[in-house]
């Protein structure tokens, strides 16, 4: 199978996704699944080279990178993200096999070995040239969607496989019911335990945490022809998902139906002069005692697994902030390789193979189901503008 030619609206795409329509226009058989991850260091010697990869093109000196490196060095220089993606890969393979779907899963990362270029070359060497990618990021923004699509285009160019390998991408899955459902039991159990131990509902709060991004990047997230508010699709999607989770938490345990919740942000970087999405989780925790909150459940809905931003920014810094404020805090689960979530991933694979019509696709919020093919100009990188991408219509 060859890439769409230069006259088609979507580069590097399968025939079913090359026309530029928002959703696949016909069923499409794929040769393999490409699991696309962020990557992380697996030893102390990897930390600075990994951070150089993360910040490539921004000219950040090593002494400044070392300020972030201590997060990784605290855990022996090892990010858990690669081990988690190995586990997720095995779980997806097992679920595919259980359903009788004969598709190999190739795994590659943006910032550390195994790299995406290695995974795509491995697939091509095996004769698997029509790939369906699943990126381990659920929401719409430059770093969580468009950058992965830039990675696909870059890798095809660097490997010389442009015109040989095609890469489609599974839709953003923020409101797929399996993703939403995977958060519910852990939150419900944490809140129920607070109530069982005498904390009143009014003194209990859920903080839904996600990675902050620059406000200009947030404003440009999602398609240009929809108004999502000042936080763009990125903030709107998180708010919608949090509301959907809390509705299910209330159904899980009726005592929890009126527990208050809010969206907070973490892991801010960049110069202080650059506005980023707020409020910061630690700032909000500091304010909560004045609002008579004495117990919080912190749910990392912006993350698929317990990688460094969860282990350091939440399990370390946010829990320390809660201790300082005299607030009881529990960090609840990410999806990881939970069977419910993994089944949802394979549901999404089957959905794309069959080109299920949008009206028949499951979506847990009014914002979805999201597009198979990203729309023109969505999720622009404010700093660098538009680069060539796969799985989307050119601006």
TrEMBL record:
CDD domains attached here? Answer: Ferrochelatase_C, Ferrochelatase_N
The molecule here is called: Coproporphyrin III ferrochelatase
InterPro entries per record: Ferrochelatase (IPR001015), Ferrochelatase_C (IPR033644), Ferrochelatase_N (IPR033659)
Q: Name one GO cellular component term.
A: cytoplasm
* Compartments, as annotated in UniProt: Cytoplasm
Q: Where does Fe-coproporphyrin III bind?
A: 79, 148
Which coarse location class applies to the principal site listed for this UniProt protein? cytoplasm
Record keywords: Cytoplasm, Heme biosynthesis, Iron, Lyase, Metal-binding, Porphyrin biosynthesis
**Gene3D superfamilies per record:** 3.40.50.1400
- The region called Disordered is annotated at 1-24
What organism is recorded for this protein?
Leucobacter weissii
Reaction(s) the record says it catalyses: Fe-coproporphyrin III + 2 H(+) = coproporphyrin III + Fe(2+)
């Amino acid at each position: 199978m060859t890439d769409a030619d230069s006259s088609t609206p979507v580069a590097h795409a399968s025939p079913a996704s090359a026309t530029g329509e928002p959703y696949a226009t016909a069923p499409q058989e794929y040769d393999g699944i490409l699991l696309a991850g962020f990557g992380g260091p697996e030893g102390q010697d990897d930390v600075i080279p990994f951070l150089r990869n993360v910040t490539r093109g921004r000219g950040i000196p090593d002494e400044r990178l070392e300020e972030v490196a201590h997060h990784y060095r605290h855990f022996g220089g090892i990010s858990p993200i690669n081990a988690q993606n190995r586990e997720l890969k095995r779980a997806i393979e097992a679920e595919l096999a259980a359903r009788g779907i004969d598709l190999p899963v190739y795994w590659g990362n943006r910032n550390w070995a195994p790299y995406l270029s290695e995974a795509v070359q491995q697939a091509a060497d095996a004769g698997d040239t029509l790939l369906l990618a699943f990126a381990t990021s659920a929401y719409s923004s430059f770093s969580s969607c468009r950058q992965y699509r830039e990675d696909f285009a870059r890798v095809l160019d660097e490997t010389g496989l442009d015109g040989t390998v095609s890469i489609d991408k599974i839709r953003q899955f923020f409101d797929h019911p399996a993703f939403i459902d995977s958060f519910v039991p852990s939150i419900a159990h944490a809140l129920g335990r607070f109530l069982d131990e005498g904390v009143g509902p009014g003194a209990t709060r859920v903080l839904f945490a996600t990675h902050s991004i620059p406000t200009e990047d947030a404003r440009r997230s999602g398609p240009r022809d929809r108004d999502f508010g000042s936080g763009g699709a990125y903030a709107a999607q998180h708010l919608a998902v949090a509301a959907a989770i809390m509705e299910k938490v209330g159904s899980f345990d009726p005592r929890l139906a009126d527990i208050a919740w809010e969206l907070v942000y973490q892991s801010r970087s960049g110069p202080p002069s650059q506005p980023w999405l707020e409020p910061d989780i630690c700032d909000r925790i500091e304010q909560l005692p004045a609002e008579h909150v004495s117990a919080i459940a912190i749910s990392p809905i912006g993350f698929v697994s317990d990688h460094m931003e969860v282990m350091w920014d939440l399990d370390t810094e946010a829990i320390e902030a809660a201790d300082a404020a005299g607030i009881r805090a529990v960090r609840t689960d990410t999806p990881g390789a939970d069977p419910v979530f993994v089944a949802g991933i394979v549901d999404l694979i089957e959905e794309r193979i069959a080109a299920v019509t949008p009206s028949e696709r499951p979506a847990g919020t009014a914002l979805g189901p999201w597009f198979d093919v990203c729309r023109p100009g969505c999720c622009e990188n404010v700093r660098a503008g538009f680069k060539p991408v796969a799985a989307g219509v050119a601006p």
